[in-house]
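Fold this sequence, please.
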Amino acid sequence: MTNKPRKLLLGGFACAAFLALSVPAMAIPVNGSATWTGVLTLTNTGVLSFCPPVTPTQTPCPPVSAGAPGWNVPGSGTADLAPYGSDPNGGTITTLSQATNPVGVTLATPTLFMTFAPAPGVGDISFYMQTVFAGVGGIANCGAPSAPGQTCTPPGSSVTFLNAAGGNASATISAQGFARHASDAPGFAAASPLQYIFTAQFNKPFQGVLADFNSSGSFTSTYSATATATATDSGTSVPEPATWLLLGSGVAVLAALRRKKAV
């Protein structure tokens, strides 16, 4: 082998090494859903606290004003979130408020919303909250005599009330955020979108719920919730600054070899 082909071969190996090192680190996508139940308390000051029913073995929830996280035990999970559904240690849910998560506002820095206690088979996925959507029930029926099919959203609220047949009502809160692995690089460009639905049930029309809320300043109810993560490639192939440097180095090697060959 002559000197020039040897140099070209070595240079090709060097360039290939640079290019191999320059492949961006891909975030691990998250797919699946997790469902759970618990107790939530909504106050007229815009605080939403999550806590489970108190049993002889559980510590009562702290006062809502303390802002301490609630505790939950998910009921089931699918795909990547399957281990979370059967995690016996449960996890924490962060208390939300109008100050930290204003209704209808998309946060530039999402709130760390749900974390899970370490347990065998449970990974490092965390749930973040980015937008708590405004309710869509309107105000027209909020003070009207109760009837099935009516909806209501108090001004500025995230809650959509619905009167069902039989004199019962439900309240729904929708939100969106992200699911990501703690081991991924910081940021959310490559995180998987996450949709939340929280639903509470009442044994009275929402007019009665609102009357109780107005008199006491809060309402507490059991709820069920679902969080669904959908993997996305958005943002996963954007090289970091160090990657651009390595790519540039590989191009420089090729350019230098071409100049030598031309001499």
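The first helix runs from residue 3 to 21. Residues 32-229 form one domain.
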